[in-house]
């Protein structure tokens, strides 16, 4: 990652950067010299969102003006790091604390390049942090972790490496850590996690982290960690398989969120559960038509081996419920249907509790990190009917994200507030601050919701 190199502390050589909304432009322009006003007019600069103007001086470059929209949207500032020339820049405008934090976060998101295998074409311009917002930088670190983990190919981010990342974060914060792997999953009654991952040369596993004071509210975080999804015996076509290194994006979100909660020392008790597998094809791959009795005792007929995410999650959710948390949040790159319905930028939120859903939606608005609530429409359980088992894991192309969420809900204890985020964890193309590849979607709003829950 390169986002951490986006900041400087010494303002002595930094050039001034004027941050302007369009409504502020006329007043700012009027303070400039006639020659500079002529330059501004010649460039047709009016401080429209996403624009930038370099300001000339007697010795070359004298500064710049940055046009933004919503000052509380981090991405409003994200065009600056690669729009500005390389060098250090200091804020020459007055921003309130919330806008300043958004700018620091947005600058880091805009400076990000995944550089593990390819050196960036140029360095990012650096923002001088005269007033550091530590929380904004911790949030940035969590977002960058998600991007890095999702961008890393499966050969270097399989179940072993995901476990190592979780183990490292646990060690940083003094959390308890446990891994249940391979055939021990069967001995410990996690049959669906084992079934999905048993054909890979890398053992399936449940990664468990616990942290916090038992007197604090208990939140369980569950993540789908399918480190590569071939589709199994119901193999995906090449185009559908191409980016399936991203299918552990839910686990990346859950792990980064747990790390952020611990870094900020929120008064919560956290249980993190990551179901880490590779859905591969081999002699012992699980098959369509098999029936698996899950941890919860619910028998499931395998209609489609490519509906594997809900299988690994159902055992993890059942185990989470056994811990009797105050709420369960799960994150998963679960369905293409959610993308068809809402597109790549809007994660689909499902919840069995209106207060929990409203809290997440409120946080999404405040952080400009949107989610969109979708219905848990129980009549659609008919699409998961099996003739020989309690439930099928798939069965219809109708309401695919809804039926997936309904399947998961079956494994959440009655009365336990639960929210499920079906997130894309990916940008299909490059935009300022949103490079093509892995992305944290719904992470910032989830954190803000948990922070607000702490009062």
From TrEMBL:
InterPro entries found in the cross-reference section: Leucine_aapep/pepB, Macro_dom-like, Peptidase_M17_C, Peptidase_M17_N_1
Pfam family, one: Peptidase_M17
CDD domains: Peptidase_M17
SUPFAM superfamilies membership: Zn-dependent exopeptidases
A GO cellular component entry from the record: cytoplasm
PANTHER family: LEUCINE AMINOPEPTIDASE-RELATED (PTHR11963), PEPTIDASE B (PTHR11963:SF20)
Keyword Acyltransferase: no
GO terms classed as biological process: proteolysis
Protein name: Leucyl aminopeptidase family protein
Gene3D superfamilies documented for this protein: Leucine Aminopeptidase, subunit E, domain 1 (3.40.220.10), Zn peptidases (3.40.630.10)
Domain named Cytosol aminopeptidase: residues: 304-311
Keywords, in A-Z order: Aminopeptidase, Hydrolase, Manganese, Protease
Keyword Protein transport: no
GO molecular function annotations of the record: manganese ion binding; metalloaminopeptidase activity
Family label: Belongs to the peptidase M17 family.
Organism: Pseudoxanthomonas helianthi
